C-alpha cells in the first residue's frame, strides 16, 4: 500500500493538462427545466449517481444555472425551502463555464481559484455539453497544494505573494526530489504559478481604472507550454478588444501603465523580467485582437529570421487572466489558417534542423566550446529544443490546439498515423532531458549555467540515458528532413 508521501508524487491520473475537457466529461449531466420542483430534482438525483443538476432553458436549451444536492438539502433543512418550490428559485445563476474544447489545465486553475466543485462545459453556440467535477480532473491539488492554493488566494499584497511564490518553488523542489514525474511536476508548477500570476494581476488591477472593454493577459514560452521549471522568466502580453479601430491607440495607452505595473510585480515575486522585453508592458506586445491576428498573419506570410524567432515564443500562447474568448478565437483562427502556409513550415523546419543533437559519429558527446562553461551541454538549446520545435511545427501544420510539447507530440503522432510506442519514446526522451535540466536548475546558483550539464558529472547509467534521448532527437530530425526535403 502506498504511503501518503508516495501518493502525493504519483503522476496525474487524469492525463495531460493540455487534453480537451470534452474528452474528460464521461457522463451526461442531469438536466432539468426551471419549473421542475425540488422534489422531482431530488428524486431524479437519487435515481442516478449525480450530485448536481443543470437548469436549462426550455426554449433555447441554454444553461441557466446549477444546483447541487448539498445546496438543496441545506435549503430544505435550514432555510425553510419547500419541496414544491421550482428549482430555479434556489439555483446558482451564471455558474462557472468553459468551452468544451478548452484544455483541462484551464479548468483546474479556474476551479481551484474560485473554490467551486462543478464547471459547465458549453459548445460554441452556448448550448450545454457536459459537467466537470474535481474527480474528472485531479492533479493540481496533489502534492499538498491545498494550503498553497489557500495562501495564494488570501494574499493581499506583493510581499505576501512573494512568500507564497517562494513556498511553491520550495515545495516543487521537494516533489521533484521525491520522484514526481516531470510532466506532472511541470503541470503542478504551472497550475500554481498560474494562480500566482492571476492573483498578482488582480492586485494590480485594483490600483487602476481600466477601460471597460474585454481584455486578457496572455502567457507565452514555457508558461504557455505548461513547462515552467525552476529557472524561468516572463514571456507575456496583453490582448484587448476595442469597440472600433479608431480607439485602439487610446486603449493601448490606457493599458500600458497597468501592464508595466504587473511586470514589475511579477519580477518582485521572483519571475524575472524577459531579457528580450517580451512583456505586456512593451507597446509591441500590448495589442488589440485584430493587431495580434495581423502579427501572426505577417509571420506566416513572411517567414524571415525575426518571424521564425517569434514563432518559437508567441505561437505557444494561451490566456491567463481576463476574457479568454477573444484569445480562443485567435487560436481557432491560427490553427485554421496556418496549415496552408507551406513556405512558413519549410523555414520552420530549417530552423529546427539548424543545430544537431550533441552526439558525434561514434556516439560520444560533443560540446559547443563555450569558454565560460567548457565541456558542458546546454540541455535547453541542445536538448529540449529539438522536441519543442518539432512539436510546435507539427501542431500548427495539423491544426492541433494543444500548446504543451508532450501533448503536441502525442496529438501529432496520432494525426500522422505513427505507432504509439514511437511517440511514447519521443515523449519519454523529452521528459528525461527536462529532468536533467530541473536537477541542474536546483543545484546551480549561476543563471547562465542553469541548463548546462557536464556529462562527466553524471553516472554511467545517466550518460547512457542522455545519449539515448539525443538519439531520439536525431530520429525526430531525420523525419523532418524527409518530410521537407532538407
TrEMBL record:
Single Gene Ontology MF annotation: [protein-PII] uridylyltransferase activity
Highest taxon in the source lineage: Bacteria
InterPro entries in alphabetical order: CBS_dom (IPR000644), CBS_dom_sf (IPR046342), DUF294_put_nucleoTrafse_sb-bd (IPR018821), GlnD_Uridyltrans_N (IPR005105)
Chain positions covered by the region annotation Disordered: 1-20
Record-annotated CBS domain positions: 25-83, 91-148
One matching Pfam family: DUF294
Keywords: CBS domain
PROSITE patterns: CBS
SUPFAM superfamilies from the UniProt entry: CBS-domain pair (SSF54631)
Name of the protein described by the UniProt record: Putative signal-transduction protein containing cAMP-binding and CBS domains
